[in-house]
Amino acid sequence: GAVVSQHPSWVICKSGTSVKIECRSLDFQATTMFWYRQFPKQSLMLMATSNEGSKATYEQGVEKDKFLINHASLTLSTLTVTSAHPEDSSFYICSAREGDLDNTFGSGTRLTVV
Amino acid sequence: SQQGEEDPQALSIQEGENATMNCSYKTSINNLQWYRQNSGRGLVHLILIRSNEREKHSGRLRVTLDTSKKSSSLLITASRAADTASYFCATTPRPGRRALTFGSGTRLQVQP
Description:
Chain A is mainly β. Chain A has no helices and eleven strands. The N and C termini of chain A lie far apart (37 Å). Chain B has no helices and eleven strands. In chain B, strands 2, 4, 5, 9, 10 and 11 form a six-stranded mixed beta sheet that branches. Chain B has a five-stranded antiparallel beta sheet with strand order 1-3-8-7-6, with no helix packed on it. The interface between A and B is medium-sized, with 24 and 19 residues.
């Protein structure tokens, strides 16, 4: 079946630094990738939709200059949290889909900003 | 934005009992899915039910869908301690939006 690899699985960074999270579709071409965020004991909230070769579409309230998304190829999307602050500490998870097929989720990244 | 609510928010049962979780959503949907998430981990897809289906079974799981009430339920029969996790419903709204919209989740604790 479809596999999505997400790295790193966890990261600790200092406040003010940037962190890049990668999401790769291993055995299919992902025309669309999605990035979600999950705060402790809460549900997953969609942050942005990433389409290969075009700009990402951000959900209301998500700062596009803070959460940079690049989807340069059909198998890779990256999310960069710029100038991270402790309130950005969260669980970030991507999903990818090929055409109209179902979403396949990565294993998530636990970000802790200290 | 969050599509809907799940209840209960938390559920604690004994091993062997059945667990029922309910999900309500707000807009018309193409399908509804249930996911499981162990603490701090990724999502595990459990089952998908399409908008024209009313009930679906998979092993110890039974899902119902009532589109007139915009609600779904997940029943786990003969629960095990290993079923302890958070369970989320997720919908694919019509038309054409392809991202999943998640419910608020139910935290299930199965006591051995």
